[in-house]
């Protein structure tokens, strides 16, 4: 019997290709490959594989991109900037725990591709990304892999958008690589999933553990996850739930290890002093990470952090209210670019 969820993927793939994106397998090291949807100037129509041997060429391209963004020196010749698709700002979309990148951001990437070079990586053990070489399951490791993949693709500077688990990876990436990450837009996430935050969240939702909630094995468990993730109560036939379980919750052993890797045993984990502008875009009815947690996080992150709530939206706000989400994200990215243009003019 045809899996209805899998059957939709060719349509989504076609939409992404029409938007100018191509699938690329980036080999970070032997045994570790990250699958990335990237602008078509990186690949032919059938996609490609980028290996570590391509790193020097990519690094040179990244250096040229970085130089192109600097303030020009001198007259007309010095003011010439690099043209073509590489000249557009880069935006990286990092998905959450329930689905890979193209599924997560299927209603969002289309409004970005005309103004930005959009990159949508699948984190390790999601989609076609995997490793047989490393036992590290921390969000820091995921962040290092994203940074390495972007380096292979010649990306020297980017704005990062993270949702839920992807938001935690995005925070780690921004903390470790301020030279790479210009700004952050995060929804439904925290800087670090401490024991305290995890325990409070599970108690509030009545879940035994994060694994029980986020890695359901039954229809009832999946229905419970969707119930707490969405503001609107939506009905789907059981067949859809069954197909979703089979299609999306693969690599269970490794993903359970990723959940364990999220937990920070330090009860008093400190908020890093981020250099970047940060926008928190939040569903006001988010039951996983409520708006009060977002307000507290905004205060902790300081004056470079902004919070925009979206009413009648839950944890999956980018799917429930994509127009409202896209509007806020677009405004933030436009603001970040205008600030940099003023600084370099």
From TrEMBL:
Q: Which residues form the AB hydrolase-1 domain?
A: 89-322
According to the record, the segments passing through the membrane are none
Q: Which SUPFAM superfamilies does this one have?
A: alpha/beta-Hydrolases
InterPro entries linked: AB_hydrolase_1 (IPR000073), AB_hydrolase_fold (IPR029058), Epox_hydrolase-like (IPR000639), Meta-cleavage_hydrolase (IPR052370)
Give positions of region: Disordered: 41-86
Q: Name one Pfam family in it.
A: Abhydrolase_1
Record field: compositional bias (Low complexity): 55-74
| GO terms, molecular function | catalytic activity
Q: Give the protein name, as stated in the record.
A: AB hydrolase-1 domain-containing protein
